[in-house]
Amino acid sequence: MGRETIDAAILAHRGWVSRFKTGLEGINTEYFDLASTQDHHACDLAWWLRKDESREMLGPQAHEHIQAIHARFHQICGLLGEQLNQRTTGQIYQERLAELDSISKEIVRILLRARDAFF
Known about the structure:
The chain has about 120 residues and is mainly α. The protein has one domain: Four Helix Bundle (Hemerythrin (Met), subunit A) (Up-down Bundle), CATH 1.20.120. It contains five helices and no strands.
């Protein structure tokens, strides 16, 4: 357990976001099931958040907060995927993309804060 653990969680989250966005844009050739993106238990960050070490590193309050916003993040991913599949990518789609970016940045901020405080 160390600084590398939180750095790995950040890297996993950023990588997932990047693959998701390129999937939305049709750039990504990797299979990325947009319908399954709403499952906030399926990504590598979620796997780490289920471990006791994440609660210890983040603290109970930050851990609870990141769990909640991470669930919202994946909910938005699912909605964006549905909108894309239905070809309804207007104003609401753009607003959801903006919210997704905002939540993603907050997730990373929480992790960085914990990393810097813990080490």
